[in-house]
Amino acid sequence: MRLSKEFRDQFIQHEMRTHGRKNGFVTDGQEARLLKWLPLIGLPKDKTLAEADLKEGAPVVMEIGFGNGDFLVHLAKNHPDWMLIGVEIYLPGVAKAVARLEDAGEIERCRITQLPAQFVLTNQVAGEQLDGIFINHPDPWPKARHHKRRIIQKDFAELMVTRLKPGGFIKLASDKADLAEWMRDILDATPGLTNVAGVGGYIERDADRPETKFEQRGIKAGRISQFLHYVKD
């Protein structure tokens, strides 16, 4: 079924313009879990991470665009000491992620927002509050006239740096060669970041990294993913 109008009115933000899908199909059970958990772990626009009851002293790591939550669950299982912040505007994806996190017994260590990442980092995250940021297979917006919609832009890269602690990381993945190059070139030129692989380089795939849904699609289409790893100086 599609998300009910009442549910969409309550949880989908309409004030800020975003690109991409926001509504879609969910099961009755997924909608019920969203109704249960978002009031507890959600980050509405008037709430900051400082007010989100994060475990004191725990590393705080964000995934921007977590899709259906596969990678978020992987992070939760493999890093039991982390507090995880998930950012995703596609509410049916949020529904699937919440269900998977609850099934994995990891949901209470997560905070979820459906707001645009630019707003989240600007208004809900304090300076040097994050220990790391993951961005996996963001929308490539392949047409040249749409490149301005790509999430990695000069100003967004500079914003991420301000929200990372010294020594904090940004890890990215894409199976679209031109987008991987786009992200690499912008981040290589961003003050305060060091490319772990060296300027112009990509890292090897992390040994424990799972194949996300979008990566599997790329593999079937014959595309190879590229991986980037940056550290704040």
From TrEMBL:
- Name the UniProt key words of this record, in alphabetical order: Methyltransferase, S-adenosyl-L-methionine, Transferase, tRNA processing
Question: Any idea of its EC number?
Answer: 2.1.1.33
Q: Which GO terms describe its molecular function?
A: tRNA (guanine(46)-N7)-methyltransferase activity
CDD domains (alphabetical): AdoMet_MTases
Q: Which InterPro entries match?
A: SAM-dependent_MTases_sf, tRNA_(Gua-N-7)_MeTrfase_Trmb, tRNA_methyltr_TrmB_bact
- What GO cellular component entries does it have? tRNA methyltransferase complex
Q: What PROSITE patterns does the annotation carry?
A: SAM_MT_TRMB
Its domain of life reads Bacteria
- Metabolic or biological pathway, per its Swiss-Prot or TrEMBL entry: tRNA modification; N(7)-methylguanine-tRNA biosynthesis
- Catalytic activity from the UniProt record: guanosine(46) in tRNA + S-adenosyl-L-methionine = N(7)-methylguanosine(46) in tRNA + S-adenosyl-L-homocysteine
Q: Which residues bind substrate?
A: 143, 175, 212-215
Positions bound to S-adenosyl-L-methionine: 63, 88, 139
State the family it belongs to. Belongs to the class I-like SAM-binding methyltransferase superfamily. TrmB family.
What does this protein do, in the record's words?
Catalyzes the formation of N(7)-methylguanine at position 46 (m7G46) in tRNA.
The record's NCBIfam families line, in alphabetical order, gives: tRNA (guanosine(46)-N7)-methyltransferase TrmB
Return the protein name. tRNA (guanine-N(7)-)-methyltransferase
Q: Please tell me the species this chain comes from.
A: Mariprofundus micogutta
Organism taxonomic ancestry = Bacteria, Pseudomonadati, Pseudomonadota, Candidatius Mariprofundia, Mariprofundales
UniProt gene name? trmB
